[in-house]
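Here is the promised in-class demo. Please do not try to memorize the tokens; focus on the logic of going from shape to residues.
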């Protein structure tokens, strides 16, 4: 079953965040993920949710998504992101 990692980012240091994006992108590719959404414009349809930046990744399985998140490569990306953005992230199984 596919798994989708969904992240909401509030970027406070765009220059530093670029370094995170590079490292994260390399880790995503290495662990078999693919970007579905990467910071495009959002359009509110209902409620009051207005994330400043939204990212959606697809993985073949939940286990694969967890391997990506726990990988040394993504740990390095998260370290690069410290002080550059606040992040909310979850993974959900899909269809």
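The designed amino acids, position by position:
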């Amino acid at each position: 079953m596919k798994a989708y990692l969904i992240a909401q980012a509030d970027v406070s240091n765009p220059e530093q965040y670029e370094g995170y994006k590079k490292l994260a992108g390399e880790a995503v590719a290495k662990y078999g993920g693919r970007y579905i959404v990467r910071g495009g414009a959002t359009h509110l349809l209902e409620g009051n949710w207005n994330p400043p930046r939204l990212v959606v990744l697809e993985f073949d399985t939940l286990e694969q998504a967890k391997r990506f998140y726990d990988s040394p490569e993504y740990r390095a990306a998260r370290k690069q992101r410290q002080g550059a953005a606040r992040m909310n992230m979850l993974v959900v199984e899909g269809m």
